[in-house]
Amino acid sequence: MTQANTYDYIIIGAGSAGCMLAKRLTENPNKKVLLIEAGKNDHYIWIHIPVGYLYCIDNPRADWRFKTVAEEGLNGRSLLYPRGRVLGGCSSINGMIYMRGQVGDYHSWVQATGDESWSWQNALRRYKKFEDYHSGANEWHGKGGEWTVSKQRLRWPIMDRFREAAVQAGIPSSDDFNRGDNFGVGYFDVSQRAGWRLNTSKAFLKDAVKRSNLTVITEAVVTKLKMDPQTKNCLGVEYLKDGAAAQALCANDDASEVLLCAGAIGSVQILERSGIGSASRLSALGIPVVADLPGVGENLQDHLQLRMVYKVNGIKTLNTKANSWFGKMMIGLEYLLKRSGPMSMAPSQLGAFAYSSPEQPSANVEYHVQPLSLEKFGEDLHAFNAFTASVCNLRPTSRGSVHINSVDPEAPPVIHPNYLSTEEDRKVAAESLRLTRKIVESPALAPYSPEEYKPGVQYQTDADLVKAAGDIGTTIFHPVGTCKMGRDDDPMAVLDSQLRVRGIGHLRVVDASAMPTITSGNTAAPTMMIAQRVAELLTGE
Fold first, then answer.
1. Contact status, residue 270 vs residue 36, Cβ threshold 8 Å
2. How close are the terminal C-alpha atoms of the chain, in Å?
3. pLDDT surpassing 80 at residue 5
4. Rounded Cα–Cα distance for residues 402 and 394 (Å)
5. How far is 142 from 131, CA to CA, in rounded Å?
6. How would DSSP label each residue in 61-124?
7. Does residue 5 sit in helix, strand or coil?
8. In this structure, which CATH number among 3.40.50.620, 3.50.50.60, 3.40.50.300, 1.10.10.10 belongs to the domain 1-73+86-99+191-272+285-301+477-515?
9. Active site includes 478?
10. Rounded distance, CA 492 to CA 516, Å?
């Protein structure tokens, strides 16, 4: 093993949280910071072209290429479960939608932790600090931060008609989904800059790497944390680089820390390999137990999207535009000349937040609407004109798990989201499919004779619709909660409200796994907000 260097802060994972922390913590020139990433650099053209997510997901150049177990709620299907393995992490392969969630989400965090610092108002202050919002600073948004929030650079007539149909179905028009009450329909704001994807490597690391106090190591897989079994302090990390074992240590300083930012899947793997987790589970794998924390790897939450497809007539969609060589050429030319058009598309362009039933306290379902359709991710678009209206339950009550079953750091974990395992989630699924039908039956779409292609009008009863949900449901890539923060009396809380690992010194988990409950929407921005909170704690702001 090579001679170890020492650092004030060791950050594991250069994703949505890790890149921000690297920039914030190196602002103090007296602090020496290491950022260690399992993946390669982000010098891959498809990371930066928005539509390039199609070529990054399930590609070992940028993705860990995980899969779930066969899910009972999905009628025995296993899903691809993408996680970024590259500088920028999941921000290099995600859908680029900028979404904070709703007021109630943060109230739930305050209830779970007893800490008002997680309130909506405190979170809003942090969001505004790193934002560079397209319309300038106002009550809701910040200007001048590193993270550019842009309007999309395209519109589709079929999306406009769906928006009109949603309004006719009782969903108000909205031009901003980030004010705390998202009820409405409109085009998403996106994490793009001048038609290019913005990842956290570009936003935060680009400047930080110029500082002499930051070291970035890529293609280095952390095997485990280096622990002192007597004091239960985290002393550093052990990792593999170019096939050789190496380690990095924390400075001999009470203020030095290891910040685990490997995500809701990766952070669990590293903790469990290090002896932090359920004692019985670790002992069965022959791993010496450092801390018995049964909550590690439990409480997995994710948004399951139900992808309804409708054939249409008399209006063009991307299906037919992209299914000819001339159409492809024009799409490429538009992006080359204007940085606009289909190649600038986020995976979903139009969004809507709605109530699946009147008794919900706030909007509880989110739509991602696309001017295209396909059988499943990675396959060709359909030959007919169609649109997809995906709807997801924003506050699922199903809870899953992720755990290692090998000490090999390259072995995939066992991911069991446990979708549709509660009666409440099955009820919301059936209500969501009916709500989509109500929207599509509105007058604005009538001229185009929409025909339900998936799942099909034969599904009518609640039982039918739950079966259909299992057939068409798929992840929208929002795993959270597997190292949740919580109160001292919560036996399943892995972290305290400042994201310190319980019973362990000098170790925090700073990523989406810390969320006690999932936010009502896309999860990249809340993960950055969590990192901003920890940066403030560590720098004394």
1. no
2. 38
3. yes
4. 20
5. 5
6. TTB--EEBPPBGGGTTB--EE--B-BTTGGGGTS--B-----HHHHHHHHHHH--GGGSHHHHH
7. strand
8. 3.50.50.60
9. yes
10. 10
Question: Over the stretch 420-449, which tens digit does the pLDDT of each residue have?
Answer: 999 999 999 999 999 999 999 999 999 999
- Residue 215 tokens, joined: 């070291």
The region that residue 27 occupies, defined by phi over 0 for left and psi between -120 and 50 for alpha, beta otherwise, is alpha
Mind listing the pLDDT tens digit for each residue in 454-479? 999 999 999 999 999 999 999 999 99
Joined together, the tokens standing for residue 280 give 């019985």
Q: Has residue 3 got a pLDDT over 70?
A: no
| Domain range summary for the chain, segments of one domain joined by + | 1-73+86-99+191-272+285-301+477-515, 153-187+303-476
Give which of 310, 329, 334, 276 is closest to 391, Cα–Cα: 310
Residue with tokens 């929030």: 149
- Supply the pTM of this predicted model: 0.96
Average pLDDT, the chain: 95
The whole-angstrom separation of Cα 62 and Cα 60 is 5
- DSSP string computed for 272-331: HHTTEE-HHHHHHTTPPPSEE-TTTT--BB-PEEEEEEEE-SSS--HHHHTTSHHHHHHH
pLDDT at 386 over 90: yes
Using alpha carbons only, give the angle 336, 338, 340 rounded to the nearest 5 degrees: 95
Q: Which CATH architecture has domain 153-187+303-476?
A: 2-Layer Sandwich (3.30)
Residue 246: which H helix or E strand, with range?
A: strand 244-250
- Which one from 303, 382, 403, 478 is the annotated catalytic residue? 478
What residue type is 348 in one-letter code?
S
Q: How many residues does the chain have?
A: 541
